[in-house]
Amino acid sequence: MKKEIRFYNALFPLWLLMAFPVFWAVVIPANFLIDSLVLVLFLFVFRVEQKRKFYIGHILPVFFFGFAADILASGGMLLATFLGVGRRGDEWYLTVPGLLAAAGLIFVFDYFISFRRVEQAKRRRLALAMAILTAPYTFLVPTNWISG
Hints:
Blueprint (H helix, E strand, L loop, with lengths): L13 H6 L4 H22 L5 H32 L9 H23 L5 H15 L8 H5 L1
Helix pairs in contact: 2-3, 2-5, 3-4, 4-5
């Protein structure tokens, strides 16, 4: 009997990380790279002085809290699926709120923790840029694109 494997909810499904720990080797570097690219881009856009020092001092909190936001939002979607709210976990009424929750958490974590020592105008813009550009948009990829 052939066992069917389904991939629910795109590049960052919480269950996949639990079921296949080696997947962490892809997700962690990909998230770090995306966070780094966005942070460096906006260091130039917002004309932050001492870019290297700023990057080194902020990338780890930005990365860890962004990853935590993704995990919390993904966990909320997974919990809703287990509670019977959705059949597959990739219905729009689960993924859109999950995406918005992750983006909101990224903003809150970056604004109040990662960039807490940055002047308020830059802090708000950096936190907003990170929230918008590093939100887990892969939540929106339908399951059938991956599992057929």
